[in-house]
Amino acid sequence: MKVVIIEDENRAASRIERLLNEVFPEANILCKLESIRESLVFLNENSCDLIISDIQLADGLSFDIYKQVEIGCPIIFTTAYDQYAIEAFETNGVDYLLKPIEKDRLQKAIEKVKKLQPKVDVEQLMSLFEKKSSSSYKSRFMIRVGDKIKSIPVEDISLFYSFEKGTFLHTRENRNYLLDQSLDALHPSLNPDAFFRISRKYIVCIDAVNEIIAHTNSRLKLKIKGFEDDDIIVARERVKQFKSWLDQ
Question: Which one, of 238, 194, 193, 195, lies nearest residue 215 by Cα?
């Protein structure tokens, strides 16, 4: 069985590969892909028997891959959150694994694939994912300031950014606060209608984008209200999706 792993976190991809080799040693892992763009290129030119796919990739939701490429093989989705989608998707007979993936759960998923070989209804799964209640996203952040705890509503946040191995949020009052989690961990908890990850360094709020400027290599430079930084650049591979996000 030819297997493709789509996962943008190196540690998670390596874990899947190691566990897959243990529970299904006859599997032939063709490649590990990290982005929508990379996956589209590969899947347009190659076929496989199984895809193990994360949902939240650095350049968007992996569902976009399966809307653009006709996939004839089963897909095992993985995610770090969203219990509702997990339960709903399991009724369709294709498994949906919660991170960190356990060996016995992966083994059961592989057994399902061997027996059922179902075709994934990506449109149905995407619909379930998009119907996720906005209340499941974070509404505020509790920040420690000295010996006090400050509550910051998401409506007051202009952007999140990484700087010198730290993660910060910037408010509309032009204040910066240190967070105790990475942008990778933070991103899934934010409402995608309001926040967009333009690069590995920045997640911006749509209401805070003050100006958009054409930049080199088909990229875009953003001006954020109250945030002085000339390096807020939309990564080239995310420009198209960013424009669609602005136009929603």
Answer: 238
